[in-house]
């Protein structure tokens, strides 16, 4: 009578039996063993283009209130979808329609302070994640106290316009451990030069780097309860375009003048 082969018996057949009083090692364990030593390489520091992080663009979906942060003035689909959670069926857009997304605000930092902007960007993303995934029971009920359906609750979670503006005021005010907008001693620019930061503003016992928020609608700033003294507010209509000179052109121009 032939023995019926099952997946379990097939695996047991790969194990070698002990013979002659000696215990042998199963073949499967040898096959899956990692004998090569792992080499711990040196950390590679990321390199950024000049000016990267000096501006943070905040885009808003004017129909559903979704918000997206970006370092680039043009919103890209693959970048935006990483910041839009799944809150229910048909609540996450299948594609990015740029006619629905508009720039809501731009956070601008002084020249050479891109590292501060990248630090603020990281904390804004973290606060946005908390609002989307760690919400309280108030999201379960509407204004009249009625229990919301799953779709209504998803729409409410998608609308992060007010929370985004409140997060901007809090993070620009120094919220978050390791927030580099808090100036401690001498400020170090991206070129490595150490200098005292003249733009530091004292507020509530902290020295904060100066920042400017440009608004499409200046009334949006009222979503935040309080703004610190280091933040100034402007509107897009008053902005003037100034071409940025590539690094090195300014030094060449100065050398020609001295010659």
Description:
The protein is an alpha+beta fold. Helices cover 26% and strands 15% of the residues. It contains seven helices and nine strands. The protein has helices spanning 7-13, 27-31, 77-81, 114-133, 150-158, 161-172, 249-258; strands at residues 55-61, 67-70, 101-108, 187-188, 194-195, 201-203, 206-208, 211-215, 231-235. The strands form three sheets. It has a five-stranded mixed beta sheet. It has a two-stranded antiparallel ribbon with strand order 4-5. A hairpin with a 2-residue loop joins strand 6 (201-203) and strand 7. Helix 4 crosses helix 6 (161-172). The longest helix has 20 residues, at 114-133.
Specify the helix fraction band. Answer: 25-40%
Number of strands: 9
Strand order of the largest sheet: 2-1-3-8-9
Unreliable stretches: none
**How many strands, what sense, and barrel or not for the largest sheet?**
5 strands, mixed
Distinct helical segment count = 7
Rg measurement, Å? 28 Å
Shape: extended
Q: Distance between termini?
A: 102 Å
What percentage of the residues does DSSP assign to strands (E)?
15-25%
Mean pLDDT: 82
- Summing up helix and strand content along with how strands pair, one would put the structural category as alpha+beta
Order of helices and strands: HHEEHEHHHEEEEEEH
